[in-house]
Design goal:
heterodimer; A: alpha/beta; Rossmann fold; B: Rossmann fold; nine-stranded mixed sheet; two-stranded antiparallel sheet; 6 helices
């Protein structure tokens, strides 16, 4: 009984979250004495065997042209076909936008248990016990299931990517997908950017920046670091920044290695989306800002003074390393 | 148009989260509950659709009687009637099965759920419900317009948005963007009075499996105290990020 990994790609490249899902699946396979099978669905990167480097023993490709456009029901039907053909005990799906769409559909169609928001490797396999985040990061819960097959959906960046040395032998999976029940009209995506949930470094700013045009300071710091940019809810509500950058409870939840919050007071709704970041830096002119309590490092100061200095210091650091 | 809005009854965002019974249960003592924020965006969108196209807005909740104040609040905001399935909502598949039975019985055109609840953050029920009913499913949905039996929707994708079409009936997992925060309605006195006499039907649960259970809860480890760095010493921050936090 094997482990199947849903291997997503965008714009002809595998997502970092896919490498992470493969690493996770490979560890389950190792712990349960089975094989890790990655499943690539629809249009795919040229080199599929690269997933071997991240732990896939085999890489299956279901290349029906109908799958080039994402539809949850169609993708779930192909994953189900792969589960039947390969004999899956565990399915690993990243908690990406598409992963979160597919996992519950697959769970129903395959009669499998679904555990989402997972942030650790299983603690045991008979029965399965795995830890997940709950209560908007204010709690952790060990979930268990007695179902024969379990789908585990992992939080991007929670587990990390690990390199393995597997063959990544490529095979074709013939599967007729279920009919699509949605039709894509258009896609509006910023090209070439790291998706926020997968970014390891994030520079985020709030109302303290005073006006949309002041984001040049934030973008310069982010570019210097190689970080993605994010913002607080008021900033996206005022349309200073696009809604897709809003992190927090009603926006996107992230857990980068480094989260730099500039001019964000740290309302509990904001913290719910970022408190799992590994390191948090808070820069705020108000020494009483609640965010300092959730921070690892804090600077009380004017963003318009501190941010350019920090950008220069990081440039100097990068030049000397 | 018949619209069903599925609502969860969740601890207020500011609630302190504690566990009891040897960390096997969530301690609701002293916790105030609200309509799940993601569902509230969906409820408001449903009211907008009703105002534009006519029809009815029904809210449905799977849970015990203690959730009725939350259901009444949804009625006070403007839903026409409500259904409560009398069962403990401890598993995503179980809850989705209850809702599927309600949808099958009453044939809604649009079923709006929040993309996840802010308590268990499972994000499972909307997609499972769509799969149980074999209906189109759009998750992280930030836009919906209906024309006749066709819908145009927007969903979030990595770094952007996707616009798509689907035929009714459909199920969506919604979030802010369906309507804006400023569109949310606070119940007024008239709404609260009217809500008291609106129909709240209580239904017994239908048989369905529970696939998962919580063995143990735990609170996250508290963070170490913040290290403050002087504003004129940003080099020290860079140094700490490199040598101590090891993130750059």
């Amino acid at each position: 009984m094997s482990v199947i990994i849903f291997a997503e790609s965008t714009e002809g490249k595998f997502k970092k979250a896919t490498f992470e899902a493969c690493s996770y699946g490979a560890k389950i396979a190792a712990a349960t004495g089975s094989e890790a099978h990655a499943l690539v669905i629809g249009s795919a990167p040229a080199d599929l065997s690269v997933l071997g480097k991240y732990g896939a023993d085999k890489v299956h490709h279901a290349s029906d042209a109908a799958l080039d456009e994402f539809n949850g029901a169609a993708v779930a039907s192909v994953l189900k076909a792969a589960m039947d053909a390969i004999g899956a005990k565990y399915v690993v799906i990243s908690g990406s936008f598409n992963g979160k769409t597919v996992a519950p559909i697959l769970s129903v169609k395959a009669g499998a248990a679904l555990i989402t928001n997972v942030n650790s490797l299983p603690a045991s396999y008979g029965p399965l016990v795995v830890r997940r985040s709950a209560f908007s990061s204010k709690g952790l819960a060990d979930y268990t299931t007695s179902a024969d097959v379990a789908i585990i959906s992992i939080i991007p960046n929670a587990i990390g990517v690990e390199e393995h040395n597997k063959a990544g032998e490529v095979a074709t999976l013939d599967a007729a997908p279920a009919a699509k029940n949605t039709t894509v009209v258009s896609v509006d995506r910023v090209k070439g950017q790291i998706p926020l949930p997968e970014a390891e470094l994030v520079v985020s700013a709030g109302r303290g920046m005073k006006a949309a045009e002041n984001w040049t300071l934030i973008e310069k710091l982010a570019d210097t670091l190689g970080a993605a940019t994010a913002c607080s809810k008021p900033v996206s509500d005022m349309h200073w920044r696009p809604h897709t950058e809003h992190v927090g409870q009603t926006g996107i939840a992230i857990r980068p290695n480094l989260y730099i919050a500039i001019g964000i007071s740290g309302a509990i709704q904001h913290l719910a989306g970022v408190s799992n970041s590994k390191t948090i830096v808070v820069i705020n002119s108000d020494a009483e800002a609640p965010f300092f309590k959730a921070a690892d490092y804090g600077i009380v100061g004017d963003a318009f003074d501190v941010v350019p200095k920090l950008t220069a210091a990081i440039e100097a650091f990068k030049a000397s390393n | 148009m018949k619209i069903l809005v599925c609502i969860s009854h969740v601890p207020d965002t500011t609630a302190k989260i504690n566990f009891k019974d040897n960390n096997t249960a969530f301690d609701t003592d002293g916790v105030s509950f609200v309509i799940n924020p993601y569902d509230e965006f969906g409820l408001t969108k449903a009211l907008f659709l009703k105002e534009k196209h006519g029809g009815t807005v029904t809210v449905c909740h799977v849970g015990p009687a203690s959730a009725e104040p939350t259901i009444r609040k949804a009625l006070a905001i403007g839903a026409d009637d409500a259904i409560r399935v009398d069962a403990e909502p401890t598993d995503g598949f179980f809850v989705a099965s209850q809702l599927a039975a309600i949808v099958k019985e009453n044939q809604y055109d649009v079923v709006i759920c929040g993309q996840e609840s802010i308590d268990y953050n499972g994000g499972q029920v909307p997609g499972m419900l769509a799969a149980l009913l074999d209906l189109p499913f759009v998750n992280a949905c930030v836009g919906l317009e209906v024309e006749g039996t066709n819908a145009t929707l927007e969903r979030e994708i990595d770094g952007g948005k996707e616009k798509l079409t689907a035929s009714l009936p459909l199920v969506l997992g919604g979030k802010k963007g369906l309507v804006e925060e400023s569109d949310l309605r606070i119940p007024n006195m008239r709404g609260i009075m009217m809500a008291r006499s609106k129909k709240l039907e209580v239904k017994p649960a239908t048989d369905a499996a529970k696939h998962t259970a919580v063995a143990q809860f735990e609170k996250p480890q508290p963070k170490a105290p913040v290290k403050m760095i002087a504003a004129d010493n940003v080099e020290e921050l860079v140094n700490l990020l490199h040598t101590e936090a090891k993130v750059i």
